[in-house]
Amino acid sequence: MNTPRTRFSIAITAMTVLLLAAALTTIFVLDHRRYVSSITGDVDTAVSLVDQHVRSNTEAVRLFLTQTAQEIERFGLGAVTQDREDWERFRNLTEQLPVLRSLWLVDDQGQMSLYTDRFPTPSVNLNQRDYVEIHRTRGVSELFVGGILPGRFTGEPFFPVSFPAYDDDGTLQAVVAAAFEPSFFGAFIDNLVICDVCSVALVNDANEIFAGVLNEGTATYIKPLDSDLRNLRVLGFAPIDQITEQWWIGRSYAIFGSIGVLLIISILSLVVTISVGRAARSARELANVNSNLNVSRNHFKRAQQAARLCHWRWQMGNDEIEWSPGVAETFGVPPETFAPRGDVVIGTFAEMIDRIHRDERDQMQALLTQVATNKRTETRVFRFFPPQGEMRFVSLEAQPGVADPETGKILELFGIVQDVTDKHEAQLALREAKDMADAANTAKTMFLATISHDIRTPLNIISNMNDMILTSTEDSGIRNYSEAIDRASENLLALVNDVISVSQLESGSLKLHRSGVEFASFLDRLVESFRPIASQKGISLVCN
User: Fold this and answer.
1) Are 405 and 382 in contact (CB under 8 A)?
2) Angular region, 135: left φ>0, alpha ψ -120 to 50, beta rest
3) According to the model, what pLDDT value does residue 229 have?
4) Chain segment 124-179, per-residue pLDDT in tens
C-alpha cells in the first residue's frame, strides 16, 4: 500500500476522478447556459411574434378606421349613418376583423351616432372620453389607443382605438372608434410556447395590461410599438433565478446520478488500484517465495545428496513407487534404472523388494503392512544389494499417508530411505573399541586388586614387627622411631585400602560402612607423620 508504484496509481486515479468531475461540471454548466439561452430565446421570439401580431391586426384596424373617417369627411356623418342598411354594413365590416369587438361613430359634440352592437343607436354622449378630447385638441389625423375601459353596456373590459375625421377647416367632424378585444391578443399569447415561469404581456405606458401576464420585476425584453401604437409595449419576462431553479429540478436526477456514478467510479478505481497494488505485491511476494522455495529445494536436494537420503511415495496395490531424484545415488544404482516424471522418478515395487536381502524381504513387506494397519510410523535397517558393488545397509522409514475419508483405510504410504552403511560400520567399529576398552579396564581392575592384596600382606608383617619393638623396649628414642614407623605403615595401609576400594567401585562390588573417627588423635598422627621431614628443613610443626 505504501509502495511508490501504489502511491503513483492512487495519484493517477485521483487525477482521473478530478478530470471526470471537471468534465461533468463543464457539461452541466454548458447545459445550464444552453437551457437559459434557449428559454430566453423563446421569450424573445414570443415577444417578436406578439409584436408582429399586434402590428398586423392594428394595421388592419387602422386602415378600416381611416377609410371610415375618409368616408365621413367626404360625405358627412349623416350620410353614412342614415338607416339600418348603413348600420348592417358597418357591422359586417367589424365582424370581418376578429380583433374588434364593436365600432361606434361619435359626432363633434360627443354624441354617439352609430353603434354596431345595437340598433337603433342608443343616445349616449361620449364627450368626456379621453379619445374624443384628444382628437379635438390635437387636430392631427393619427390613431390613438386609449386605456382599458369597462364596457358601458356589456361591462366587459376593452381598450378603445380611434381615428378622427376633420372638415376642410381642420375642425373635428367626427371620431371613428372601435373596441379592441383583449382576449384576442390574450389567446394568441396563451398559445405561445414559452417556459412556465416566463411570461409575455401587452401593456400601455401606464402598465395597464391589455393581454398576457405581467410578472414582478424588470422585464427582460421590452419592445415598444412604433407608428400608430406609440403608447403600447410588448414586455417579455424571463427570470433567470426561476429558470435556473426549473433547470435544476429537471436536471437534479441527472446531476445526482452523475455524482453517484462518479463516486462509484472513484470507489471502484480506488478499490481496483489497491487490489492491483496488492496483487502486484502478492505477485512479488509469491515470486520471492518461489525463489526461496527453489533455493530451499536446491539446498534440500544437496542435503539429501550429502546425507545419501531420498524420499518415496507408494500407492498401496500399485507396482509403481515415486522416488526423489537422489534415489540412484542412495542405492548406488544406475540413474537409467528409474524413469523421470516431473520432479520425481519412477521405480517398481518388485525391483525394490528384489534388492533387499532375501532373509529380510518378508520383514520389509510385514513392516509396510504394519504401518498401513496400525497407522504408525515404523523404522528399520535392511541389507541392500546394488547391481554392482558390496552389500549396503539402508534405513527405511515408513509412515501412513492419504487415507480413505469414508473408511479410514490407508491408501498411500510415504517414507524416507537413507544409506546408513558408513554409520553402521562406524557403529560396529565403535562397538569393537568399546569391547576392547572394557576388557582393558577389567584387566586394570583385576591388576589393582591383586597387587593391593600383595602389598597389604608385607605391610601387615612390618606393622606386627613394629608392634613387637614397641612392647619390648623402653628407650624413648627407639619408641619414637617405632611410633613413626607405625603411623607410616597405617597410612600406607589406608592408601592400599583406598586402591582396593577403587577397584571394588569399578567392578560394582563396593560396600560402604560406618566407623568412628577421633579427630584430635587423627591430627596428631598427621603432624607426627610429617615431623621428620619438617625437622630436616628446620620447620617446627605444632598441632594445638
Assistant:
1) no
2) alpha
3) 55
4) 888 888 888 888 887 767 788 777 777 666 667 777 888 898 888 888 889 998 88
Burial of 476 (0-12, 13-18, 19+ CB in 10 A): exposed
* Rounded CA separation 36/195 (Å): 10
Reported as a pLDDT band with limits 50, 70 and 90, residue 437 is confident
| Cβ atoms within 10 Å, residue 447 | 11
* Chain mean pLDDT for the chain: 79
- pTM greater than the 0.70 cutoff: no
Report which DSSP code applies to 320: E
| Beta-bridge partners for 310 | 417
Dihedral of CA atoms 41, 44, 49, 55 in degrees, nearest 10, equals -160
Tell me the three cell numbers of residue 16: 482521473
- Written as one letter, the residue type at 28 is F
pLDDT tens track for 192-206: 888 777 888 887 777
- At 29-68, the pLDDT tens digits run 888 888 888 888 888 888 888 888 888 888 888 888 888 8
**Is 181 in contact with 99 (CB distance < 8 Å)?**
yes
If one counts every other C-beta atom within 10 angstroms of the C-beta of residue 170, the result is 10
Cβ contacts of residue 486 below 8 Å, gap of 6+?
463, 466, 467, 470
Q: How far apart are CA 433 and CA 310, in angstroms?
A: 31
Instruction: Report the C-alpha gap between 426 and 59 in whole angstroms.
Output: 137
Backbone angles phi and psi of 378, in degrees to 5: -130, 150
Q: Which residues contact 266 (CB under 8 A, 6 or more apart)?
A: 13, 17
Q: Which residues contact 332 (CB under 8 A, 6 or more apart)?
A: 386, 388, 389, 392, 419
Give the rounded percent of residues in the chain with a pLDDT score beyond 70.
88
Q: What is the Cα–Cα distance from 161 to 181, expressed in whole angstroms?
A: 10
Higher pLDDT, residue 459 or 53:
53
| 390-422 b/e (C-beta count within 10 Å ≥ 16 → b) | eebbbbbbbebbeeeeeeeebeebbbbbbbbbe
What is the phi-psi region of residue 238: left when phi exceeds 0, alpha when psi lies from -120 to 50, beta otherwise? beta
